[in-house]
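Ligand-bound model needed. heme C.
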Amino acid sequence: MTGQSSVKFLLRGLILIALLITAVVMQATEVSDAMLEEFASEAAERFTVQAGLATWITPQPNGRSCESCHGESLFATGSHYKTGELIEPMAPSVNPERLTERRKINKWFLRNCKWTYGRECTAQEKGDILLWLSQQ
Ligand code: HEC
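Prediction:
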């Protein structure tokens, strides 16, 4: 390979990597944006990051909150309240797999809201949390 063609080869590789990264990032916002629109059609008020944060961290009378397992930082690994099983960071900026799968998001919203609040979350709560999470 000549010097010039290996530079071209390297450039092509870099462009490909950049495209792949953009694709992953776009996917996260596409899925969560679509879900936010759906929740919005069932919620009375506009979603805010402040409400999302408050809902996430506020402990219930039973002492439980979303932080019980996900930990105090969305950027660090959490550990399951009961089993001690490690939970990967929740922030999409450090864990690009987050908020990319509708089925997974719905499944865990259902389970975790029931465990934390003893009931399902409302569309308002889910929208606030999802908006806030998607920006981390
Ligand atoms: C009892 C422990 C526990 C609590 C409390 C908890 N979670 Fe989770 N959560 C998990 C586990 C386990 C997973 C799945 C493992 C993983 O994704 O790393 C998960 C995954 C999720 C996901 C999936 C995100 C994705 O796209 O990968 C969402 C959304 C979520 N939780 C929201 C919440 C919310 C909202 C609360 C508070 C109402 C909460 N969690 C409280 C254990 C918990």
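Residues 3-134 form a domain with the Cytochrome Bc1 Complex; Chain D, domain 2 fold (CATH 1.10.760.10).
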